[in-house]
Amino acid sequence: MIRETVNLIDVCIIGGGVVGLNIAREISRYRLHVCVLEKEEDVGRGCSKANSGIVHGGYSDEPGTLKAELCVAGNRLYEQLDRELHFGYRKTGSLVLAFAAEELPTLEKLLENGRKNGVTGLRIIERQELLLREPHLNPAVLAALLCEAAGVTSPYEFSIALAENSLVNGVDLRLQEEVLAIEPLGGEFHLKTSQESLRAKFVVNCAGIFSDRIAAMVGIDEYRVSPRRGQYVILDKDQNHLVQSVIFQVPSRLGKGILVTPTLHGNLMIGPNAEEIDDKTDVGTDAETLANMVTQARRSVPGFDMRKALTSFAGNRPVSNQKDWVIDDSRIPGFINLIGIDSPGLTAAPAIACKVFAILQQHGLTMEPKPDFQPQRLPIIRKKAADFAGDLNATDPSLHIICRCEQVTEAEILDCLSRGIPVRSLDAVKFRTRAGMGRCQGAFCGPRVRELLSRELAVPSTEICGKGECSSTLVKRARRSDLQKL
Ligand SMILES: Cc1cc2nc3c(=O)[nH]c(=O)nc-3n(C[C@H](O)[C@H](O)[C@H](O)COP(=O)(O)OP(=O)(O)OC[C@H]3O[C@@H](n4cnc5c(N)ncnc54)[C@H](O)[C@@H]3O)c2cc1C
To answer: Is the minimum distance from the CB of 271 to ligand 1 under 6 angstroms?
Structure first.
């Protein structure tokens, strides 16, 4: 049944990805009714969950573009945000490798771009220094662009942390609520969702790959956002010693090329490719494409062992028919469009939020600070000491191990259930605690997490969605046994 929300919402944000949630958290500092509408069962399930997790330095985008400006500004906000929200961020530095003399001018060009964009800690390093830093690189490498400002984060934990903190600060988060229609009427907006009818003074369109459809709902129909898929393989943590920094190759027209990177939690990740596809929701992977990527990645780091492959995944870049990102408030007063926020959107998201905040202020939205704004959010995943004495049968939840591979305790899972966002699936637990992300990929802990959820939510275990089952689309993935043969 469709409900009618009578109260006028100040700011309605469409899309609970890393962009929408950074905006929500930023404006939750003020006495406003802010609402986030997200069509999926959890936050961060669009391309905010399936990307490289790199906090880029900001040298690869054309000077003068929004991408360049907001990437550099966003990068600088990460350390402080992580201190407040504890989602996980590590400055690793990045390297763009050149293997042939004809690639060296590209390094020079990137260096020049970076300097114009205001990136610090950028320089070109020669083979000898490079191999001292990264001894497992292909010894045929000639030189590299080093960017000290780059780092890695956990993109889905960032979204979850932002959502939890926004909630604590009064943001109204509505999951499984798809926006179906928007009508500008009498200086406000009437929204029809799959659950209710709402009225809002301001609407911010952060619907990622679907942002063109949201814009079209208010009659702005010149934008097209198309999916450019990127597939990845994740390897076991025992392969992580092979690289310390994010390793790129000289980029191509379609993107930054295949990278080899340590992940925040210590796995090794290879990807992404760049495929123009038709279906915005198709995040499948296939062994043939991954085999090509593995060959390209071996050019940078020859020695990784594909028998240690754990899983694959893919994300769709929202690539628009515009040259740069669109952050536009000019067509319909009060309607702010964010179109084509592809890479480096994860890096830029905190700075995008500041920009949208400024736009809202210019539009006359009264921003009265909340004296009780709570900037801190505690982590869910606890650091375990080397002598941590967890046990599969312990009665103390903080010692009771549920996921053996990732050492996830019952206490951590109980904690993630108590943060205000409904957590009802194995996936939702996995993205918060890492239960199911290790070597066994949930074969051991899946039933244990299901049992725990069933007990805590007081629902039959058959009602708990498994891996990927709560998503609105079915995903076809390359089999692990095929990955291990690549
Ligand atoms: C392969 C790949 C690699 C990348 N690597 C990096 C990287 O290393 N570093 C970096 O900085 N950036 C990277 N990016 C870019 C980054 O992931 C995106 O820029 C960022 O996640 C965009 O966030 P978003 O919130 O705009 O979009 P999304 O995360 O897609 O969020 C949009 C949300 O809107 C919701 N939605 C859509 N329609 C509706 C509707 N009608 N009603 C309600 N909700 C709706 C969706 O369900 C979704 O949750 C990469 C992207 C990809 C795909």
So the answer is: no
Q: Which residue's alpha carbon is nearest to atom 19 within ligand 1?
A: 345
Q: Which of 37, 343, 347 to mutate to test the pocket of ligand 1 (most atoms within 8 A of CB)?
A: 343
> For residue 315, which atom of ligand 1 is closest to its CA?
53
Class of the 91-150+226-320 domain? alpha beta
Catalytic residue among 33, 56, 136, 363: 56
Decide if pLDDT at 1 tops 60. Answer: no
pLDDT tens-place string over residues 386-433: 889 899 999 999 999 999 999 999 999 999 999 999 999 999 999 999
**Is the domain defined by 386-418+425-469 classed in CATH 1.10.3470?**
no
CB of 51 shorter than 6 A to ligand 1: yes
Is there an atom of ligand 1 within 6 Å of 60 CB? no
> Domain residues of the chain, as ranges?
91-150+226-320, 386-418+425-469
Is the beta carbon of 10 within 6 A of some atom in ligand 1? no
- The answer to whether 91-150+226-320 and 386-418+425-469 have equal CATH topology is no
| Ligand 1 within 6 A of CB of 35 | no
pLDDT tens digit sequence for 69-100? 999 999 999 999 999 999 999 999 999 999 99
pLDDT at position 255 is 66
Distance 51 CA to ligand 1 centre (A): 9
Told to judge if 241 belongs to the known catalytic residues of this protein, a careful annotator would answer no
Q: What is the pLDDT of residues 357-378, one digit of tens each?
A: 999 999 999 999 999 999 999 9
Give me the percent of the chain exceeding a pLDDT of 90.
91
Q: State the average pLDDT for the chain.
A: 95
Is the CB of residue 452 below 6 angstroms from any atom belonging to ligand 1?
A: no
In SS3 terms, the chain reads as: CCEEEEEEEEEEEECCCHHHHHHHHHHCCECCCEEEECCCCCCCCCCCCCCCCEECCCCCCCCCCHHHHHHHHHHCCHHHHHHHHCCCEEECCEEEEECCHHHHHHHHHHHHHHHHHCCCCEEEEEHHHHHHHCCCCCCCCCEEEEECCCEEECHHHHHHHHHHHHHHCCCEEECCCCEEEEEEECCEEEEEECCEEEEEEEEEECCHHHHHHHHHHCCCCCCCEEEEEEEEEEECHHHHHHCCCEEEECCECCECCCEEEECCCCCEEEECCCEECCCCCCCCCCHHHHHHHHHHHHHHCCCCCHHHEEEEEEEEEEEECCCCCEEECCCCCCEEEEECCCCCHHHHHHHHHHHHHHHHHHCCCCCCECCCCCCCCCCCCCCCCCCCCCECCCCCCCCEEEECCCCEEHHHHHHHHCCCCCCCEHHHHHHHHCCCCCCCCCCCHHHHHHHHHHHHHCCCHHHCECCCCCCCCCCCCCCHHHHCCC
Q: Using CA positions, which residue lies closest to atom 26 of ligand 1?
A: 208
